[in-house]
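Changelog-linked ticket: zinc ion example.
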Amino acid sequence: MENKNFTKVTLMFFRIISWFDVFASRYFFKTTQLNENEGMLMEQDCVFCDIISDKKPASIVYSDEKVIAFMVIRPINPGHLIMIPKTHASGLSELDEEMGAHMFKVALRIVNAIKKSGIECEGINLFLSDGEAAAQEIFHIHLHVVPRFFGDGFGVKYGPNNFLEPSREELDKIAATIRNSLEE
Ligand SMILES: [Zn+2]
């Protein structure tokens, strides 16, 4: 009987240790190390870096030395794709201006291509989420290109404090705050 209990306790102990190990490796010791791949910075455990380095499949629409654009696996509408920089940048603050400009330039070409392609498209949204509060889910910055059509059911939800009309004074004050921050 005692022996049985001992085995139980031992098993339990090892189970807890292995749970902790899984937990710890996911949350405490998550590798955020950057590796080099053909001169580009790659982050371990980043699904987009894995696509760039061919470790994960993707339906590629466009690729050059700086960016890659590929189809979203759960699209809002057919033709929904995302464009990412080939160098890992988790958010906008890590993106240099030249890369940002290049991303937008390529996005314009893709927008025109979608419009010409025959894919259902009565409008297009370009959107980019920076930060968890802005609904960013994958922390390798990405620009969505989403073909839209009337009745597609997609929309942005508004809260009760959105679209209040601040006074001109208040707008001027906020403008000055941002202006000062720009000049710093
Ligand atoms: Zn990445």
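Closing comment: Example verified and attached. Residues 47-148 form a domain with the HIT family, subunit A fold (CATH 3.30.428.10). The pocket of zinc ion is lined by residues 43, 46, 48-49, 88, 140 (CB under 6 Å).
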